[in-house]
Recover the amino acids of this structure.
């Protein structure tokens, strides 16, 4: 991983103990459109994170992420919203 990739990396631990890491610079327009189509316009952020994040070091499909408790879902959405790609 390059220094730029490390600087952009967002890391958090959810209340269920799952460690999440993602690089917001990997969420491009193609990823957004794919997420919107897959989610029917709902839960778009979760579908984006399913594409670009790891959960305890592994990829996780969006339907599994959506089984997390509501607090953890909000935490993930807030982490995405607060991420500043390229800064």
């Amino acid at each position: 991983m390059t220094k730029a990739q490390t600087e952009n990396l967002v890391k958090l631990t959810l209340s269920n103990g799952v460690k999440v890491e993602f690089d917001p610079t990997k969420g491009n327009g193609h990823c957004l459109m794919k997420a919107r189509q897959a989610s029917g316009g709902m839960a778009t952020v979760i579908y984006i994170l399913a594409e670009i994040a790891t959960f305890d070091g592994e990829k996780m499909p969006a339907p599994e992420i959506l089984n997390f408790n509501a607090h953890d879902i909000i935490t993930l959405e807030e982490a995405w919203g607060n991420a500043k790609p390229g800064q």
